[in-house]
Design goal:
This protein is mainly alpha-helical. It has 19 helices and no strands. The chain has helices at residues 3-23, 29-61, 67-99, 117-127, 129-133, 136-141, 146-152, 156-167, 197-226, 228-234, 246-279, 281-300, 303-307, 312-327, 330-336, 347-372, 390-409, 420-424, 426-440. Helix 2 runs antiparallel to helix 3 (67-99), helix 2 packs across helix 16 (347-372) and helix 12 runs antiparallel to helix 15 (330-336). Belongs to the major facilitator superfamily. Phosphate:H(+) symporter (TC 2.A.1.9) family. Residues 1-22 form the signal peptide. It is a multi-pass membrane protein. InterPro entries: MFS_dom (IPR020846), MFS_sugar_transport-like (IPR005828), MFS_trans_sf (IPR036259), Phos_permease (IPR004738).
């Protein structure tokens, strides 16, 4: 269907489902949760399309010298989104807390969640649609990428016209008529599908590398992200939930997560943007996984030390550094590399497969940590949960996961300073096809690349 067309569809799907998530219908908890899950599923469907398209479109527009920085910058804007979401949650929860006072949960379990608290989460979810909606006009004005039009849609004339529009130069559309008509076109050896021996022999290990590293990263990254509050509570940085009202808890968790984003997440993204085309994707990913492994073990092995009063700041600093090196590391590079190393026809598909593998890792990390982090003493575990291995041992498991990420990084090729066609070997195929056409051509016209 093309990059541009689906890009608009995914945006509208995300915006509609963000608003619908906040409207989640019904009064009963089961009804609200059922409709919330329904709309969040379709929101995820939209995001699942937006991820590979954003990376692919930028990779196909950028030049080889700055391509990594441009794709990383697209991903780095996520950091500002995280920051903006956290700040907005702080503002909304502070406003509601000031307007609707409530006792702590341990004082009055039912009264600690005032009826107006129902608006807090709804407003936060719905406002997320606004910045996305503002980009719709520019997405629709953006031309289709020339690589898709020329290499996939096989319309070289339209690709040339689009390139003239983007680059604001006159390439000479009338002189660039495609040399290969439907009758004379020779099928390139690059016309293989995803489920073919040729794809497996050329890109099988590459796809294994991008999927496995993204899978392993997200096990560690999302378990850390989703359970920051549990870790911060365990070390005493956030008060126990029972000592706060519902809205106060939102405020304090949002404040802690925003601080982490400001001090480590956002800087990590932009370090990648500035350095990725200088030191390369492979080096950054290897460095990131290595440092995450070191810091995770530094948190886990002396874990009892960090839980004592006075040592919390040291724990938060090390914990922040794991986020910094995730973002100045595999969290950025796993987004960049799949958009560079596969053929144009399969580029966004392979990126989508890699991203889906990452989200599978996020599910494993989220549910796994939820159960693993429970205390080993069953009497101290949360209601409804079996005994786990404790936070300390869970952090050791995450350290091992990061260590595995180091080994699988060696399956991913370095794409710094190399063109997309060079990485996917489409140039080789074009040369072979061009030579074959020239041998059979009566008018000796050249094939535009």
């Amino acid at each position: 269907m093309g990059r541009k067309r689906v890009y608009g569809m995914t945006l509208m799907l995300m915006c509609l489902c963000s608003v619908a998530s906040g409207l989640s219908f019904g009064r009963e908890p089961k009804t609200v949760l059922a409709t919330l899950c329904f709309f969040r599923f379709w929101l995820g469907f939209g995001i699942g399309g937006d991820y590979p398209l954003s990376a692919t479109i930028m990779s196909e527009y950028a030049n080889k010298k700055t391509r990594g920085a441009f794709i990383a910058a697209v991903f780095a804007m996520q950091g500002f989104g995280i920051l903006a979401g956290g700040i907005f949650a702080i503002i909304i929860s502070a406003a509601f807390e000031a307007s609707f006072k409530a006792p702590a949960y341990e004082v009055d379990a039912l009264g600690s969640t005032v009826p107006q608290a129902d608006y807090v989460w709804r407003i936060i979810l719905m406002v997320g649609a606004l910045p996305a909606l503002l980009t719709y006009y520019w997405r629709m004005k953006m031309p289709e990428t020339a690589r898709y039009t020329a290499l996939v849609a096989k319309n070289v004339q339209q690709a040339t016209a689009d390139m003239e529009k983007v680059m604001q130069v006159d390439i000479g559309t009338e002189q660039k008529e495609p040399a290969l008509s439907a009758d004379t076109a020779v099928k390139s050896s690059n016309e293989f599908g995803l489920f073919t021996k040729q794809f497996i022999s050329r890109h099988g290990l590459h796809l294994l590398g991008t999927t496995s590293t993204w899978f392993l990263l997200d096990i560690a990254y999302y378990s850390q992200n989703l359970f920051q509050k549990d870790i911060f509570t365990a070390i005493g940085w956030i008060p126990a939930a029972k000592t706060m009202s519902a809205i106060e808890e939102v405020y304090k968790i949002a404040r802690a997560q925003t601080l982490i984003a400001l001090c480590s997440t956002v800087p990590g993204y932009w370090f990648t943007v500035f350095l990725i085309d200088r030191i390369g994707r492979f080096t950054i990913q290897l460095l990131g996984f290595s440092m995450m492994t070191i810091f995770m073990f530094a948190l886990a092995i002396p874990y009892n030390h960090w839980t004592h009063p006075g040592n919390h700041i040291g724990f938060v600093v090390l914990y922040s550094l794991t986020f910094f090196f995730a973002n100045f590391g595999p969290n950025a590079t796993t987004f960049v590399v799949p958009a560079e190393i596969f053929p144009a026809r399969l580029r966004s598909t392979c990126h989508g497969i890699s991203a889906a593998s990452g989200k599978l890792g996020a599910m494993v990390g989220a549910f796994g940590f939820l159960y693993l982090a429970q205390p080993q003493d069953k009497t101290k575990a949360d209601a409804g949960y079996p005994a786990g291995i404790g936070v300390r041992n869970s952090l050791i498991v995450l350290g091992v996961v990061n260590l595995l990420g180091i080994f699988f990084t060696f399956l991913v090729p370095e794409s710094k300073g190399r063109s997309l066609e060079e990485m996917s070997r489409e140039n080789d195929d074009s040369s072979e096809a061009g030579a074959e056409v020239e041998n059979h051509s009566s008018d000796n016209r050249t094939v535009p690349v």
